[in-house]
Amino acid sequence: MKKIYLFTNFYPYSKNSENFLDSELEVVNQEVLAEVYIIPLHKEQFCRILPEHIKLCDELAETTRLRKIVVGLKMLYSKWFWKLPFSKDPPCSVKEIFCAFKYLYGAFLIKDFLLRRKSYFDVEGIFYSYWFNHTPLGLWWAKNADIKYKNYPIYTRAHGFDVYERNVGIYFPYREETLRNITTVFVVSQTGCSYLQYHYADYKDKIKLSHLGVFPIVEKYVDKGKISGDLSFVSCSSVIPVKRVECIFKILNEYCQKNSQIKITWMHIGGGKGLDNLLHLIQNCADNLIISIQGVIDNSHIRELYRNRHFDIFINLSSSEGIPVSIMEAISAGIPVIATDVGGNHEIVVTETGKLLPLEFTFEQFEEAISHILRSMSQYRKSTLNFYASTFSASENYTKFYRDLIGK
């Protein structure tokens, strides 16, 4: 059986980071597609229970402080550090210089680990980075430095921030060199795929589309009956600036003020650095708006909520996205969507699944989107499920992806 070495940021050690790997690895385990070894960069107290054919290597995350200092010094004395200002795409601001140091160091840490722990890896295996960040660069350096890894292909996924890096205030050093020396970049959205192909046209054949997927929450929509309120919304994301959860509250609050004759409920699932500010903000809400902030809950609980409770509309007002797994789960439960037209949202929020809004939408556009969905609610319940099954099925998408990795 092929051995795939999957490099993550936290998974399986975080409750709210890289959650969507659960579905991917469950498909791998069910279909026995490969033997996967997960190598996280960071480690936390919480750890998920992994399926049978999925192994865990903690050694990168447990790199000692002394070793990290040694790696940092190696970076500072390397050609890669000193030639960065003269590279084809140098950092252009103080912030980008700090990003360059951070991600160069990360790449050196990956390389150092692979060269120190050669005995852990088979003579022939597959490198797979979950993010198109510093990790593929470090994998290439290790492959170039030791014959042990000569036959290892290097694959990476690319999602949102790691596609539109500078657009979201991030800089990755030596991106073109990385693309030149790895095997394939699998982008989760067609929009992101086209973006990378345009900006790195010399390597467009290495950049391919590979949608993520989720398991169905319901096979057929059954009305669960309304929760308290005449109209119910649900959202699910981290409470961080790019997700604009405060914007969700403000527009729903305005909608309530202008439609005082109805009661509206809004449930938000997710936590983050902006949670305290959000909790303070929602204290001044309209009398007819009932709010439930769930914080971070595990994915099985989210799916249970969608299965057993009635929600009219899922809402996402982010300023940047890849294709949100949260929207995939909403449509797999038959919940239509209102979302901003950013990133790959237009690939999942289509005629069958909901309504798109411009990034800087007006209240009138938001109000019309709600009215449009409510007018065709029974049809949306069916068409969202059909669209999900044809485009974002975990079983279909992940089976194909791993067969691409192992060459079957």
Sheet of most strands: 7 strands, parallel
Number of helices: 14
Structural class: alpha/beta
Strand order of the largest sheet: 3-2-1-4-5-6-7
The secondary-structure element order is: EHEEHHHEHEHEHEEHEHEHEHEEHHH
Distance between the termini: 12 Å
Number of domains: 2
What number is the mean pLDDT?
A: 92
Task: Give a structural overview.
- The protein is an alpha/beta fold and 408 residues long.
- The chain has two domains: 3-213 and 394-406, Rossmann fold (3-Layer(aba) Sandwich); 231-391, 3-Layer(aba) Sandwich (Rossmann fold), CATH 3.40.50.
- The protein has 14 helices and 13 strands.
- The protein has helices spanning 21-31, 65-76, 79-82, 94-116, 135-145, 175-181, 190-199, 245-258, 275-281, 299-308, 325-332, 363-375, 377-391, 394-406, and strands at 3-8, 35-40, 54-56, 126-129, 154-158, 184-187, 207-209, 231-236, 264-269, 289-295, 313-316, 337-340, 354-357.
- The strands form two sheets. A seven-stranded parallel β-sheet has the order 3-2-1-4-5-6-7. It has a six-stranded parallel β-sheet with strand order 10-9-8-11-12-13, sandwiched between helices.
- Helix 2 (65-76) crosses helix 4 (94-116).
- The longest helix is centred in the N-terminal third of the chain and has 23 residues, at 94-116.
- The radius of gyration is 22 Å and the shape is globular.
- It starts with a strand and ends with a helix.
